[in-house]
Write a structure and sequence with these properties.
heterodimer, A: eight-stranded mixed β-sheet, eight-stranded mixed β-sheet, globular, B: Ubiquitin-like (UB roll), 7 domains, six-stranded mixed β-sheet, 52 strands, binds flavin-adenine dinucleotide
């Protein structure tokens, strides 16, 4: 792989950039692999990456039914934070956040991780108490967060209205090293690194059936033929239920549309990420200048990657109250993704009833930030057949035992 | 130069001159001008700078597709960034300023990027700025961010207002060109309720400018007559300045109407958002002309051929004195002819096709215009304005044969139907090879809930590009629409346009065909985002070959025009680079809105205090008049406390508590959820809903009950009252009323649909007042009318009667631990009763108290609060509420959940009280520290505080919380963490701090 750098760009500029090689190869599927990962979203790609990097398993195919990164990993609002309440959550999200810090260097691909700071506004006394609880929990976890006053909020976000008539800002939970990254770059950076390790990233290859013998997985059938494998990782977010059915088990997952929108680009006016969960809206500004805005999920299950207008409206209402100047800015584009929601709003990284078949799903509205940590934990599970500490609590049997990892406790919206 | 012609201009009113300001310069225009027309009339071709390289940008188009001409419009509280000049109607006093440059439009430092353009190809930032690590955040990103964005963010809150309107119709026709008019006429005549919406201020679309002749007369006359006919139909609504923004599932359509954009401050709402439910949508949204990709095609003065024609015909503005026309189709000849007819020069028509012998080329030649077939523009010359073009062979590599001086270039690469509305809800496209365009695939339309086609495309939007085709197609579409509505089409006049013979287009995605790399680096696809042919080719070379990858890697089509001009050209270049067919590459997804919509309009009048519905109790005005400090509770705003002059909130809360404990207090408890549950199966239903038995509750009695979700976790609590044999009244928490009502209905409608139970949420039908304190009975006795004695009305009973002449239901229930009556009266009597209580209580020292006093008093008494002691992970058993869980019932919601191993574990954290050793208050949300670390290396915890207050009654900090094996650890001292980083020691105690035997509340 040719390394990316300023010098490489300068060199290529002189020959009109004709010398750049493919970021990832586009191979045909081989008949068999040691491991197959279904789903080339961030989580699937990161799983493959760490299978190679941490466990030396590189005879791997990542099968993607469309274009890589075309699922939620390329549709999200890219918020990264690790200020979670429950220990198991904080452990994996903080692991992920810390891996984001060095991801550009690790992948030799600028993923533009921007720890610009993240605020979760408290707009009711109840919410304030909840965030203070999280800050106390984060102290024990070693996750750096703090509780800040409305005046400090105003200093960080001058355009905010802290004394709205309905929900004045009472303070905020602040994670200075939270922020955003460029979602496409994360997907592409991993794909390039995987390809470079000799793995096959195979796009336009939909898995249509899962083969097994004696309770052990043996391979998959795809739109590009049958492929056998020793181990199988299912990492398909909103379509997890469909794949689980192919593997012969059921999942406690509901699929719903989550929407987001961007405004036209305007000159920088908001430098941090702000989440307002009581009123259901969050906002940040991209390096291009677009306001990136999101809210809650649609209230019904579906598989269309578009949503209803009503949620957009609710979100914008909330944000105009908090940021009055956006009233005259225009909405440029709205879209939706299908998120995989579990009952406790925490993910599943688990063995399954089918031997050597593992699943990683349930990241719902908030899994972009988890990508490297999730890949790390899933790779360990696939490689060793048993979960390491990061994944241990996230098995799918926890729902049977009532061993929930409930994050909705901390925030209504969990992006 | 560009200038105003002395004659013509169908849309301007020369009798009304206006004055506008651009970058501080005063310019003259006419009523009817768009801002673009007014700028061009004043030779202001340069209007902005591009996003990445800060290249000079001029007006390219005449409508919604404009990528370049974006300005900051207005000032102060009416400043708006990124306003398209092509769709902005000019008015006297309009103020506009160009964007994205420093220090000025003419001299922009950012243009150094342009010099470095070669080093900044698509995706360069993914490949660089990687080292050293901190540099991205501290050095590179700040620089990139500073150059981000186009227009300036408004600095002040919006001075305008917006409104929303709901409407229903049978057929929504989007687009008021001749196709839309014709289709609407047919549907209207058939009796359908039609809404015909047109985004511009004018009807008729392109036909008048293109010189169409309909029924033997100029198109204009047919348009007027058709409008007349439509205007007479009561079932037809016509709206101009109304852009259909999006089509959603189930025929939901959003449209944005510009009401007072051109008359700012006249008191009307600036914009109006139409929220329409349509049975069918007819998309007659026309087509957009495509630019051609040749070197220097981004230099100001290079415009779409159709736009040039529009400026001349509609506004009598000539974009240039000498305009070179470059094309791959016959339509652009109309522009050359129009220019010539207006007395302007057309030095040459450059036609990429080998031959140009159609009727229009013949006519052009006959007018003396030089036509060069098989030729290409190799390069446009000029900087901030076109100065000439270099011509070469289309089939060549870019050798220059000839240079021609000119000050404008009119280009046409063919037309693309506007398929956005067709596509929003999943309509598919087909590639029309002959015409080189994607058009709606009638076999794969977007579907409605019943599986029929939701959208019907007509006219140019359906690929019927000429006037004659468009009218015929629209007539068919109109009839199809009528049929789909189960109506009968009436005989309706169908316009017949004269067909002008046009030769075939020849697809040209780049000129000349064999252009070298150095030229391809100068061929713009996306003018705003600076994406060039070479960038798309680079993306393909690097494997970003899905059209979505290319788009994201290069930012093609991601600008404010969302690729209206660039998408098709870009994907054709991509297909070529990949050696694939265009349809195999496919388009990116079309997402709403069609053109950007003002966020204020999307929000409408839901602003400020009423941005969410506001719920008010009957006593709200009284609280406000008393200067109560309010806190949001759901959609209510409840008094937190009633501070007196000079009092802090804390002092007020303490005073309210002490007074209630010593005398008597009043709480407005109207927000408490009140749900009537009635019917033969109501008892059985409530037994499933609550953990304890409600069916056995005698009429006239009250019982505290708990509700859990299926998982077993506590979700709400409250007092249930049996009003009659078949009727119960369930009190819920204030925040929980709607949720619990929905929960009940969910079970009744989805699971137990055969149970005979009705529910009604009567929360707002009753005002409820808690009268609490040792003197509560005295106050009620003074009001008179009911026997409220201990004997007649013991604790946990209720009675109905009249208090002070007001019909009332009086409950003996208590959340404060005091002797307490909760009085429910019809909402309309709430304020009267409250005032009477205040008056009657005066001699007993009555004072109102707020939610915070309520919270503290219940904590002193050890009562749990949903949302404080519970958080969705707590079961009643954790809170020592086992007594409220029936052992006898076969089933209730949550029972099975609670039996699961983890919920039945003896190691769960359980409710206890805490008292700090030093009397201080434990911080909100603090955890009880445990020794050692867990598997993650985190410091272990063994419990946490759930409610923590300073108790004015006990004069010390008290708290409730959950602790592992808590109830077995009374007297033990534990440590909580604090925000400051230290710890605070507290003793484990009984959570009931006050009156453990209930003598007060029972008294
Ligand atoms: C609008 C929106 C905003 C969000 N905002 C945030 C945010 O701000 N922060 C945050 O942390 N998270 C956010 N999220 C959540 C986050 O995007 C997801 O949790 C995360 O991207 C999931 O990644 P994934 O790899 O599991 O799934 P995906 O990226 O969806 O990848 C799954 C892949 O599996 C493929 N696939 C499915 N079925 C098959 C099959 N049969 N064969 C082969 N391949 C298949 C799909 O095509 C897809 O590419 C948001 C999500 C949405 C929709």
């Amino acid at each position: 792989m040719k390394r990316y750098s300023v010098f490489a760009i300068a060199r290529e500029a002189l020959r009109y950039h004709t010398g750049w090689e493919r970021a990832w190869r586009s191979p045909d599927p081989k008949p068999a692999y040691d491991a197959i990962i279904i789903g080339a979203g961030g989580h699937g790609l990161a799983t493959a990456y760490y299978l190679g990097k941490n466990h030396g398993i590189t005879n791997v195919a990542i099968l993607e039914k469309g274009w890589l990164g075309g699922g939620n990993s390329g549709r999200n609002t890219t918020i990264i934070r690790s200020n979670y309440l429950q220990d198991s959550s904080s452990a994996i999200f903080e692991k992920a956040r810390s891996l984001y810090e060095t991801m550009s260097q690790d992948l030799n691909y600028n993923v533009m991780f921007s720890p610009r700071g993240l605020l979760m506004l408290a707009q009711t006394h109840h919410e304030a108490r909840g965030y203070k609880r999280t800050v106390h929990a984060n102290r024990l976890q070693g996750v750096a967060t703090e509780w800040i006053s409305p005046q400090e909020v105003k200093k960080l976000v001058p355009i905010i209205n802290i004394d709205g008539p309905r929900y004045p800002v009472l303070g905020a939970q602040y994670q200075a090293r939270g922020g955003t990254a460029r979602h496409d770059a994360v997907n592409w950076g991993y794909a390039r690194a995987c390809s470079d390790m000799g793995m096959d990233v195979i796009q336009n290859c939909e898995v249509t059936a899962i083969r097994s013998e004696n309770g052990m997985v043996t391979g998959v059938e795809t739109t590009r033929g049958a492929i056998s494998c020793k181990k199988l990782g299912i990492v398909v977010a909103g379509h997890s239920g469909v794949l689980a059915e192919m593997a012969g088990f059921r999942l406690p997952i509901e699929s719903m549309a989550l929407q987001a929108l961007v405004s036209e680009p305007i000159k920088p006016c908001i430098d941090v990420v702000v989440m307002a969960n009581t009123v259901h809206g969050y906002i940040s500004q991209s390096d291009k200048g677009e306001l990136v805005i999101g809210g809650g999920t649609d209230g019904f299950n579906n598989y269309t990657q578009r949503g209803s207008f009503q949620h957009i409206e609710e979100t914008l209402r909330a944000l105009i109250e908090t940021f009055p100047i956006i009233s005259r800015v225009k909405m440029l584009r709205q879209w939706g993704g299908i998120v995989d929601m579990t009952g406790d709003r925490s993910p599943i990284i688990s063995k399954t009833p089918l031997g050597n078949c593992f699943i990683n799903c349930g990241w719902g509205t908030g899994g972009f930030k988890a990508i490297p940590g999730s890949g790390w934990a899933m790779a360990e599970l696939v490689a060793k057949g048993e979960p390491g500490p990061l994944a241990a609590e996230f098995d799918m049997w926890r729902f049977k035992e009532g061993r929930f990892i409930d994050e909705s406790v901390a925030a209504g919206v969990a992006h | 130069m560009s200038t105003r012609l002395s004659k013509g201009g169908r849309l301007i009113d020369r009798a009304h001159a206006i004055e506008i300001s651009f970058n501080g310069k005063r310019l003259r225009g006419y009523r009817g001008d768009t801002l673009s027309a007014a700028l061009l009339a004043n030779d202001q071709m340069l209007v902005g700078r591009s996003f990445k390289y800060h290249r000079p940008r001029g007006i390219v188009a005449s409508g919604a597709e404009e990528p370049n001409a974006l300005v900051n419009l207005g000032a102060g509280a009416r400043a708006e960034p990124n306003q398209r000049t092509t769709t902005t109607e000019a008015f006297d006093g309009l103020v506009a300023a160009s964007q994205n440059h420093w220090p000025s439009l003419d001299y922009d430092i950012g243009a150094v990027n342009n010099l470095a353009a070669r080093f900044l190809p698509a995706g360069f930032y993914y490949k660089t700025f990687i080292h050293p690590r901190p540099a991205w955040k501290h050095l590179f990103e700040p620089i990139i961010r500073r150059s981000a964005g186009l227009g300036k963010a408004p600095a002040e809150p919006d001075a305008d207002r917006y409104e929303q309107v709901y409407a229903h119709c049978d057929l929504l026709v989007a687009g008021g060109g001749i196709a839309g008019l014709q289709a609407a006429l047919i549907a209207g005549a058939a009796g359908a309720r039609v809404m015909l919406l047109e985004q511009t201020a004018h009807w008729g679309g392109r036909a008048p400018v293109d010189g169409d002749v309909i029924d033997g007369k100029p198109a204009e006359e047919w348009i007027t007559a058709t409008l007349d006919a439509l205007g007479k139909m009561e079932n037809v609504t016509l709206k101009t300045r109304c852009m259909v923004a999006g089509v959603y599932d189930h025929g939901y359509v959003l449209a944005e109407e510009r009401v007072a954009d051109h008359t700012p401050g006249d008191g009307r709402p600036r914009k109006r958002l139409w929220r329409i439910r349509a049975t069918r949508v007819l998309s007659a949204t026309g087509a957009l002309e495509r630019p051609l990709a040749f070197a220097g095609n981004d230099i100001p003065g290079v415009m779409l051929a159709s736009a040039v024609r529009d400026y001349v015909g509609n506004w009598a503005v000539s974009p240039g004195d000498r305009t070179v026309v470059v094309t791959n189709n016959d339509d652009a000849y109309r522009t050359a002819i129009a220019l010539k007819e207006a007395g302007l020069e057309v030095p040459v028509i450059v036609d990429a096709r080998a031959q140009a012998n159609g009727a229009l080329p013949q006519k052009a030649r006959a007018m003396g215009i030089r036509v060069e077939a098989g030729r290409a523009i190799v390069k446009v010359k000029g900087g901030k304005r076109v100065t000439g073009v270099a011509l070469g062979l289309m089939a060549g590599e870019g050798a220059v044969l000839e240079e021609i001086a000119c000050d404008a270039v009119a280009m046409s690469g063919g037309w693309s139907p506007v398929v956005h509305l067709w596509s929003h809800c999943g309509g598919k496209l087909t590639w029309d090879r002959a015409r080189a365009m994607f058009r709606p695939d009638a076999a794969r339309p977007p579907l409605t809930q019943d599986g029929s086609a939701l959208v019907i495309a007509a006219g140019a939007a359906n690929g019927a590009l000429t006037g004659a085709e468009a009218l015929a197609d629209a007539a068919e579409a109109g009839v199809a629409a009528v049929k789909s509505l189960d109506l009968k089409a009436k005989t309706t006049p169908i316009g017949k346009a004269e067909a002008v013979e046009e030769a075939m287009i020849e697809p040209v995605w780049m000129m000349p065909q064999g252009a070298k790399a150095s030229l391809r680096m100068k061929m713009w696809l996306d003018f705003q985002n600076d994406v060039k042919v070479s960038d798309v080719q680079l993306a393909a070379r690097e494997g970003y070959q899905s059209v979505e990858h290319t788009k994201r890697y290069t930012t093609l089509g991601m600008a404010t025009d969302q690729g209206k001009l660039s998408n098709i050209n870009g994907l054709a270049i991509l297909a070529d680079a990949l050696n694939e067919d265009i349809p195999a590459v496919g388009t990116t997804t079309f997402r709403p809105p069609y053109t950007p919509v003002t966020i204020g309009a999307l929000v409408g009048e839901a602003r400020g205090e009423i941005f969410q519905p506001l719920r008010r109790t009957p006593m709200q005005g009284w609280h406000e008049a008393q200067g109560a400090y309010l806190e949001p509770v759901g959609l209510w705003r409840r008094p937190y406390c009633y501070p007196r002059a000079g009092e802090t909130h804390e002092q007020a809360v303490n005073r309210e508590i002490l007074n209630t404990r010593a005398n008597v207090g009043l709480l407005d408890a109207s927000t408490l959820g009140k749900i009537i549950v009635r019917g033969p199966d109501a008892g059985r239903f409530l037994d499933m809903l609550y953990t304890n038995v409600m069916s056995s509750l005698p009429v006239g009695k009250c019982r505290y009950g708990l509700m859990c979700n299926e998982q077993g976790f506590l979700s709400d609590d409250g007092v249930v009252v049996r009003l009659a044999e078949d009727t119960w009244l369930c009190h819920t928490t204030s925040g929980g009323a709607d949720r619990i009502h929905g929960w009940m209905e969910d079970w009744l409608q989805c699971e137990w649909w055969d149970w005979k139970v009705y529910t009604a949420n009567v929360t707002e039908q009753y005002a409820q007042i808690a009268v609490a304190g040792p003197k509560a009975r005295l106050v009620l006795e003074k009001l008179g009318g009911m026997d409220v004695s201990k004997e007649t009305m013991p604790f946990m009973t209720f009675a109905e009667g009249e208090l002070a002449g007001i019909p009332a239901r009086v409950h003996r229930i208590s959340f404060s631990g005091e002797l307490s009556y909760e009085i429910a009266v019809p909402a309309s009597h709430g304020l009267a009763l409250w005032e009477k209580l205040v008056a009657a209580g005066a001699e007993f020292g009555v004072m109102p108290y707020g939610t915070e006093a309520m919270h503290i008093m219940r904590a002193e008494k050890g009562f749990i609060m949903i949302g404080d002691e519970t958080d969705g992970t707590v079961i009643p058993q954790d809170l020592g509420l086992d007594w409220a869980i029936s052992k006898k019932k076969a089933d209730f919601l949550g029972k099975r959940g609670q039996e699961r191993t983890y919920l039945a574990s003896p190691d769960r954290w359980k409710l206890v009280g805490f008292e700090t050793l030093d009397g201080s208050v434990i911080p909100d949300g603090a955890y009880v520290l445990d020794a050692g670390t867990n598997d993650y290396g985190f410091r272990k915890a063994q419990g946490r505080v759930t409610s923590t207050y300073h108790s004015p009654t006990l004069q010390k900090g008290i708290a409730m919380g959950l602790l592992r094996h808590g109830p077995q650890r009374m007297g033990e001292v534990v440590e909580f963490n604090t925000m400051a980083g230290g710890t605070v020691a507290a003793r484990v105690v009984n959570p009931v701090f006050l009156d453990p035997n209930g003598e007060k509340q029972n008294g």
